[in-house]
Amino acid sequence: MQEELIKKGMQYIANTYNRFPIAVIKGEGCWIWDLNSRRYLDFLSGIAVCNLGHAHKNIIEGITQQAQRLFHISNLFYIEPQVKAAELLCKYSFGDRVFFCNSGAEANEAAIKLARRYSWKKYGEGRFEIIVMENSFHGRTIATLSATGQPKFHEGFHPLLEGFKYCKFNDIDAVKENINRKTCAIMLEPIQSEGGVYVADKGYIKELREIAYENDLLLIFDEIQTGMGRTGKFFCYEHFDVEPDIMTLAKALGNGFPVGAMVAKKEIMDAFVPGTHASTFGGNPLATSAVVATINTIVDEGIIKHCESMGKYLREGLTRLKERFSFILDIRGMGLIIGIELATSGDEILKEFINEGVIVNCTKGNILRLLPPLIITEEEIDIFLEVAERVFEKFKKR
Ligand SMILES: *Cc1c(COP(=O)(O)O)cnc(C)c1O
Fold first, then answer.
1. pTM of the model
2. Is 221 a pocket residue for ligand 1 (Cβ < 6 Å)?
3. Of 258, 267, 294, 384, which is most buried with the most CB atoms under 10 A?
């Protein structure tokens, strides 16, 4: 049954993803089930999306109630859950105003447009360059691809959008050297996740904030993956004691319902006026009802504190494994976004995890990336660590 579905998938779906040979039909908490009723422990959460796990009752309730009232109406009207979602995002972040869209790439597109527009309004033409980082990831549309500092993603898609200056991550001098009279913003991920789970240095972020103030540049944080509690704070910027001017969110924002957002300070967001930016589906009633349910659940159920302590517990377990297996070079991350850098390719190890019934991800060829739901328990982490030990033991013998 599963084999047949996979065969059809390969026949009819564009070949743009390296997929696990698994068709998932059900999820509950930190567990998923395939078409053959096999159960897996999910240490990927749909790529940092289902932070509250699968089939959380509050999310189901939130979107079900909304679905019975109103699916869609357009932004020509005020939308009750959209207003509530925006109010909650502003309550728990530095932001004053929110623009809703449908994905991470769109949120970053909006941020790029807002940065240009804000600068244009204040300084006129010619101030449009954005400093971005090498090894970054900001999305797959032409603008966000251009902002992404990884040549492998650019291949075959030139000419890219002009106006991005790539700087080495965590290198403040590189940023200073690239600022000129055309610069309008600095954009980065506080943790480069797709890039291999590299965390920004606190001093670096603080200096970026200073440089941005000095040169009247907007500081844009792409928190699409690090937001919504993933790092043990509501938003990752809180770890650095600074506030950005613009922040982008998507992934876990609706716990699996597709939705993105750009959050900004009022005076910056006000560079957008009617007619400057829009999205038909952006902030749709169903999507934003998922956002409201997600934020309320994160707060009411103490998810952020739990994430912090489970992250610590998991990293302690991994550090013990690192002492035993010399091919583990590094364990890094924050909260429940964790990278395990290996001295060897991660491909075979990944397959072995799947055989053992645990879903993990591998990025950059040799970095295992762990993104379990934030509701993960110590018992489930213990199951993961036992499997990891068995898998690593096998590779030690080879
Ligand atoms: C996933 C991701 C994106 C792109 O989001 P999409 O919803 O796939 O467009 C952008 N930036 C970061 C940091 C991401 O993790």
1. 0.98
2. no
3. 294
